[in-house]
Amino acid sequence: MQFVNIHTHRDAKDGSIQLINHPVQKDFPEKPNAIYSVGLHPWDLEKLDMEKMLQQLAHLSENKNVLAIGECGLDRAIDTDFEFQKRIFRQQIELAEKKGKPLILHVVKSYPDLIHIRKNFPTPTPWILHGFNGNLQTARQLIDHDLYFSFGPQLLKSHQKLLESIRQIPTEKLFFETDDSSEKIETIYNFAAPILGLTVDKLKEMVFNNYQRIFENG
Fold first, then answer.
1. Does position 63 have pLDDT exceeding 80, yes or no?
2. Which of 64, 12, 69 is nearest to 37 (CA)?
3. pTM for this model (two decimals)
4. Helices 111-119 and 82-99 sit at what angle, rounded to 10 degrees?
5. CA distance linking residue 213 with residue 218, whole number of Å
6. What is the DSSP string of 146-201?
7. Max CA-CA distance within the chain?
């Protein structure tokens, strides 16, 4: 059974299932065996022609190798107007709903805003928080709103808040990722498994089942 890497900016060629992040503004790679998420990142919004990029995103969302929309979301740590961020985020949510595809989320210092928006989209389209770095209280609030969580290389630093958070996440809502690091996805699974009281093989099976449920079976 393969490792699942739910968010990466690299093609590691390590035999894992890799959902590769692709920014809308870059030429789309025609790799028949690769799978992608495609979205408008909050950091890029002010640099781009939004009307053109949203049209391009809608076009790319038709590609059979594009399995998710994102990464997209909200970031209060940048200067980009927050109302503008929310507007573009909502448009990407609506596209994901229309296409029946999961969302890969970038969320920084804006979890209450995310929850508020989530309440207005009470549909079964999965939302996956990539690189989750929140504390236990935040994790519990987000669990109540039926979100999925992906833990990345930050987990390896053994920060207490992340160790507490990951133990709280239901395994049916759990993913792992390498993001833009050179870390191996296997290393992250090997680190997480004993924290969760599982063998690596059992954790691989659980995450693989999560992947199949929301990406392959709809």
1. yes
2. 69
3. 0.96
4. 40
5. 6
6. T-EEEE-GGGGGT-HHHHHHHHHS-GGGEEE--BTS---HHHHHHHHHHHTT--HH
7. 48
